[in-house]
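Model: You mentioned two targets. I'll fold them one after the other.
Researcher: Yes, keep them separate.
Model: Target one:
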Amino acid sequence: MIVVDAHQDIAYNAFQYGRDFVESAWEKRRREAGTAVAAETGLASMGLPEAILGRVGVIFATLFVEPENMPMSSSGEKRCGYNTPRQAYEQALRQWDYYQRLVDSDERVRLIGTQKDLDAVLATWEPGRDLRDHRVGLVLLIEGADPILEPRQFEEWYERGVRIVGPAWSETRYAGGTGRPGPLTALGRELLEVLADYRAVLDVSHMTEEGCLEALDRYDGPVIASHSNPTKFWDHHRNLTDTQIRRLAERSGVMGVVLYNRFMDGAWRKDDPNSRVPFERIVEIIDYVCQLTGSAAHVGIGTDADGGFGAESMPVGIDTVADLWTIGDALARRGYAPEHVADILSGNFLRILRQALP
C-alpha cells in the first residue's frame, strides 16, 4: 500500500523558490532560515526523501504558471508570471524540462505516462522490496490551461506526457477560476472535446461552481478535483459545494483533501498561535465526503504541499509529506476497513489513472 498525492507544485517551487525536489524538506528549511523565501512561503514540507519515507509512491506533479496580473507576494517581490498564452506556454515548457532533467539525473524518480510506467513504479513498493528500491512516479498535470495555446495544441502536451488538465487556476481563456468568477468559455468547451479524444483526466479544482458543473455534464472522460475541500469547512468558492461533490461522485470522480489550514477551517489565522487545526480535521473532512457520497470511493489526498504555504499552515501532526501515512492509521481508528483505508490513501486515484493511461 502506498499514498498517492494528487497535487504538488514541484517544478514551480524549483523555479520560484530554488527548491530542488531531490533535496529533503529539512535541508531546505536549514538553507532558507531567515530568508525571504521562508517569510513568504513558510517551512518546506516536501522533498524526495520524505516522499520515500512516507510511502508517497505517486504524485500528480503540476505545470503551473501564474498570470502577471496576480497581486504582489507577501514579501513584496513580484512573482514570475505571464501576460500572453505564448509566455504561459514557454514558462510551462521550462517546468516540463525540469521534470525531464529530474528523472534523467535521479533513478528514484520516474515519469508516468502509460500503464506500463505505473506498473513499474508500483512494483518497487511491493512487500519485501528494500527502501533503496522504491521509486516515486510523477504524473504531469497542467494547472490552469493557458499554456495550451489552443485546444488542438493539447496533442503536443499529451506527447510530452501530460495526462491531467485543470482548465482554471485563476481566470484563464478556458474558464473562470479562483477569484475571477465565470463559466466555461467557448474555447473551454472546445478544449474538453479535445481532452476527451485523448482520454485525459479533467481536474475541476479551482473552477467556479458554474463552470465545474457544466464541465462534469459535458465531459465523459475521467474526472477529479485534485486539491479541494468541502465548503462545509470553509464556505468559499475555492472549496466544493455539496452539489459539486455529489456530482463528482456520480461521475465516479475523486477529490483530494487539501492540507492547507485555511481550506480546512475558515476561522484559522496564521498569525494567531492559538488558532490551530487539529489532525483529526483531516479525518473529519474525509469522513464527510464518504458520508455525503455514501462511499469511500470518491476521496483521496491532494496536499498542495508547499503550494504557497508551509508546514506551519498545515494541521497539527503533519510536518512533512512523510506524515501522510498516519492518515491511514487515523482512519483505521475511526473504524474504516483496511480496504477502504487503502482506497482513500491511493486506490481511488489509481483507479482514475487506470482509466486514463494508455
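Model: Target two:
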Amino acid sequence: MSAPPRPGLTVLATLRLGLFQACLGCLAVVFAGMLNRIMLSELAFPGLLVGGALAFEQFVAPARVLFGQISDRHPLAGRHRIPYVLLGTVVFCLLAVLSVPLIFHVADLLAAGEQPRLALGIAALCGLFALYGLAISLASTPYLALVIDRTQESERPRAVGLIWCMLTVGIVVGAIAIAINLRSLDGVTDPAILQPVLLRFMSGLSLIVFSLTLVAVWGMERPRGRRPPGASATTAPAREDAVTLRQSWSLITSSRQVLIFFGFLILFTLGLFLQDPILESYGAQVFGMPIAATAQLNAFWGIGTLVGLLVAGLWIVPRLGKLPTARLGCRLIAASLFLLVLAGLSPRVPVLQLVLLLFGVAAGIGTNSALCLMLDLTLPQAAGTFVGVWGLAQALSRALGKLAGGGLFDLGRALPLGPGPYPAFALVLLVELLIAIAALLLLDRLNIPRFREDTGRSLERVLAMEIG
C-alpha cells in the first residue's frame, strides 16, 4: 500500500513552523554561550566541569531514537507529533529557569570547597542538563518528523533552508537580546548582582519561547485515528509508518551506508561546534571583549549562517546537488577554522568578527546540504525513528564537542605551549580543523543510491514478515 500524498508547506507556513527552530537557536546561545561564559570567566568554573556539565544535555541523545519511535506509534489526542513538541517545550523551559540558581549554588560550593556537598551540587547540575537534553529531544525529534511528514523530497532544500534560517535568526536574536538586557553586567563578577538579573532574563525568555512554540505548531498536524462511520470503538486505523522498534533497528542496520552517514554527521557537527565551550572566552581572554560584546560574536556567526543557508537552499544545492554542496561546505568550514586560528595571532576584534561571519557562511552551506541529505535518507515509514538516529549522531557529537572542547582547553593551559592564553585556544581550534577534514574524507565514501536500495529492500523484508 503506497503512502498517502503529503500536504506541502507554503513559504508562510514554513516560516511559522520555523519559529520553533528560532526558539531552540535562542536558547542555544544562552546555554552554549552566555551561561558558558558566566561559568568560565565570571564564576571561575574549571573548563572540564563546564564542558562536562553542558555535555550531559547531549549524552542523553540515545533517547531520541526512543522518542521518535514513541512519536511514530503512540499518538496523543490523535496526533503523533505536536503534543510531544509542546510537552518537551514546557519541560525544557522550566529547567532553563531552574538552571540559573543551581549554577550559582554550585559556584558557592566551589568557593567553599565543601565535600560531599560540592559533589552533590555538581551531580545536580549535570542531572539538570541531562533532563534539559531529554526535554529538547522529546520536542525536537517529533518536530523534525513533522517536517518530513509535511514535505516532499523536492521541497526539502527550500524548507530546510527556511527553517534553519529561522534557527539562525533565533541565534542572532538571542545574542542581541543578551547584549541589550545584560549590558549592565559588563565587568560585574559579584554573584549577588549577577544571579537576580540572569534569573529575571531567563524567566522572561522561557515564557516567550513557549508562546512562540505554540504559535509555530498550532494546526500543523491533522488529527489521525478518527474512526470512520460504522467502525468499532476498539478499532483505530494503523499508521503506515508505525513499524516496531525491532523492525526499525533492522532498517537502520541494513546498510553500511547508514553507518557511514552516521559517522559523517558526528564529524561534521564536531567540526562546527568543538569551539562552542571556548568561543566567548576566546573573545574575552585573547581579544579583551566584555560580556555583551562576546555574546554578539554569536550574532556574526548566526548572520553568516543565515546567508549560507539561503544561498545553499536557493542557489547552490539546486545547481550542484546535495552531495557536492556538502563537500563544498566541509572545505569552507576547514578554511574558516584555519582563519580563526590565525586571527588570534594579532588579536583585533573586527578581524575576529569578520572571520566568524565567514565561518557562519561556510556552516550554513554545509548545514543546508547535510540536513537535506539527512531528511532524504529517512524512510517515511519510520520517519520518527530515522530522525531519532540522525539526531543521535548530531547530539552525541555536540556532547563530545562540549566535553572535548573544555578538556582540550584545560590541556592546552596545562601544557607548555607558549605564553598567554592564546595557545590553549589555538589547540582546540586546530583539532576542530582536523575533524572537519576527516568529515570531508568520510563524505566521499557515501553512496546515496546504495543507501536507498539497501534500506528499501530491508523495509520490504520486514513488512513481509509482519504480514506473514
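Researcher: Noted. Anything on target two?
Model: Residues 1-5, 225-242 have pLDDT under 50 and may be disordered.
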